[in-house]
Design brief:
Layout (H helix, E strand, L loop, with lengths): L1 E7 L4 E7 L4 E5 L6 H13 L3 E6 L11 H8 L3 E3 L10 H7 L14 E3 L5 E4 L2 E7 L8 E5 L4 E5 L2 E2 L2 E2 L9 H12 L7 E4 L5 E2 H7 L1 H4 L8
Bound molecules: zinc ion (2 copies).
């Protein structure tokens, strides 16, 4: 499986395009905002003669949604996401104002959607992505895990030396730490982690160095 990373939009979201030798591909978090960013992704798909099989999102924060509808419309595929994030689609303009985005702007709510749940398999080419539900950063956050290549797409749950913020609507620090400890830290140490923002890392490296997850909640906080 080949992983192509694009860093898009003013908030620096990683959009991942996964492909294999069959030329089938999936797009995770289509987040392009500017026309030249859109062109970059589309040209990559067209130049490689890729067939897009799935559009999937790690969660529905607005900055991960900017490029979804152009791809839904162009490829005739639904956006697949966990339904616990559905409520986030109700107030995208308010969220954007909070982050200083000028309005007006297009309606970023996916025009066509389909549910993803814990344990679902997303198949393309010879690849299988396992859906892991990882609430905490948002209630419907998920990660995608490819067991053969041992690669994880962690969304905004786990970053290189960091974790996602938990002060956004229906976020929870305790829930996020639980998700990471129970579901991500049980993966092999060599697992390569591609997060929603910033550089890649490994599960082993985060187990050793991540200051947020390693902190013992029974200590400190006084
Ligand atoms: Zn987020
Ligand atoms: Zn994000």
């Amino acid at each position: 499986m080949k992983v192509k990373t694009f860093e898009f939009n003013p908030l620096g979201v990683n959009t991942y395009l996964l492909s294999d030798e069959t030329k089938e591909c999936v797009v995770i978090d289509a987040a392009f905002f500017y026309a030249d960013e859109q062109e970059l992704l589309l040209n990559y798909i067209l130049d490689h003669d890729f067939v897009v099989r799935h559009l999937i999102n790690t969660h529905l924060h607005f900055d991960h949604l900017f490029g979804v509808n152009p791809l839904v419309n162009r490829f005739g595929l639904p956006l697949r996401y966990h339904p616990d994030d559905q409520f986030l689609l109700e107030d995208i303009p308010a969220q954007m104002r909070m982050f200083g985005f000028p309005s007006p702007h297009p309606d970023y709510r996916p025009v066509k959607g389909e549910e993803l749940q814990e344990g679902d398999l997303v198949r393309f080419g010879n690849q299988i992505l396992h859906v892991l539900h990882l609430p905490g950063h948002s209630p419907g956050s998920v990660a995608f895990y490819e067991a053969e290549a041992n690669i994880l797409f962690s969304g905004d749950a786990l970053f290189h030396s960091g974790i996602g913020r938990t002060d956004l609507p229906r976020g929870s620090y305790e829930t996020l730490i639980g998700s990471i400890r129970n579901k991500l830290y049980s993966l092999p140490d060599e697992t390569i982690v591609y997060p929603g923002h910033g550089p890649s890392t490994t599960i082993g490296q985060e187990k050793r160095n991540n200051p947020f997850v390693n902190m013992n909640p029974s200590e400190g906080n006084d």
